[in-house]
Structures are given as structure tokens and as C-alpha cells.
Predict the structure.
Amino acid sequence: MHNISKIQFVMLFFSINILINTKQNLAIDQIAGVSPGDFFYYEMYGYFISDDPNMTINIPSFEANNTDWVKIEVTNISSTIIHHTYTLNFYDGTQEIFEVQSSIINSSGLKQDFKGVPICPANLEKGDMIPSLPLKIKTTLKWTYPSGDREVNYVQWNESDDIGTCYFDKKTGMLLDLNRTHFYANPITNQTIKKTDIIKMIQSSLWTIQPSNLSVPLLVILVSSSLMVIYLIRRKYTIQSKNKNII
């Protein structure tokens, strides 16, 4: 009976370990909302504004707006680390591809040499913390895409030298839109430079992206401008014709 108890204890120990590992794997699957092969395209750009109109701003080459689009493709999921490649397609037709990692739990264990598109855990709720930032989900919204509605987690921050908003797809944890402005102040001259970064997802392998709503106002502006130019030209010729008739 004593030997049987030992065997039962060992079997129970291994059963508990298997159960714990299974639950851990399920938990990992739940927080990683993407899979190898998933890809996402982004447009990224930024601009600098100084409070001194005469100030010359030296913009680093890697922050200049010379990237046409950026592709992120997931290559592997290792525990809570998402392995993915970045493809930078430049306006001159050249490309640069490099491999990076994103932790959806804590980025402290990863090299901080690369600062790219943030990825958060999947299915976060209002008030949940995004461990890799860290920021809290402010609220959950619904965005309408051609392929259907999707839940979107909204994040906002407002610090003395850094303000911004970003939206994450709730199901995958992928960034949809980011607008961040950082303030650089010179303590000697009191000059301030605002650097604004814009990131927008423009294509996805998982759902169809809604065309930008900016195209509608832009079209209205272009049409209005054209009509105004035509009106001014016609008015000019009308006035000239009247002057000729008077003479």
C-alpha cells in the first residue's frame, strides 16, 4: 500500500503540472491575438513645429518623411513574445527589412534599441493596463469597416511633455491609429519644439480597412478651390469687359 501511495502521488503531481501548463498555454493563446503569417501595412509620418519661426530644426534622417509604407508580418509566437519582420518601403523604391520582437506582457526584458509600432494583448477591457506601454484602456468603441464592425480599444495620455491618443484592435491587439506629440524645451533659450508622430493602419490580412475619411473633405476642398478659381477668373474678365464698354 505504501508503494502504491507513492505512485499515486507521483501521478497526481504530473497531472497537476500538465493541468497548470495547459492553462498557461491557453492564457498565452488568449493574450496573443495574432498568428504567424498575419501582416499589417501602415503609413507613418511626422512633423516638427517650433514656437520660434526663425529657428532652424535639424531633423534626423531616420525621422524624415521618406517612408512610403511599413509592413509588419508576424513570423512566430514564443510565449508572450511576438516575433515579426518590419519592411520599410521608401519613396525612392528601395526597401529595408529587419527582424524585431514585441513583448505583450513587459518590454523590460527586450532590447530597447528599436521603437516601433506598439502591440498590446488581445481582448483587453476598459480599465485594463497595457503592460508594454504602460497605459490603461480608457474605453471600447466600435469602428465600421467594409468587412463589418470591429471593437476598438481607445487609449489617451496627457503629460506635461507628451500627449497623445491611440486605438488598438481589441481582438488582435494590433495598433490601428496613433497620434503623439512630444515637447522638447531648451532650458537656456526657452525655445520649444513639438514633434508629432502619426501612425495609421492602411491594410490588413485579417480584415478590410475602411478608406480614410480624410479623402472626402480633401475632395471637397479641391472642388471648392477649383470653383473659386473659376469664379475669380470669370469675374475678372467680366469686369474687364464692362470697363471696355464704358470706354
Summary: Residues 168 and 175 are 4 Å apart (CA to CA). The radius of gyration is 27 Å. The longest strand covers residues 192-204. The chain is about 25% helix and 40% strand.
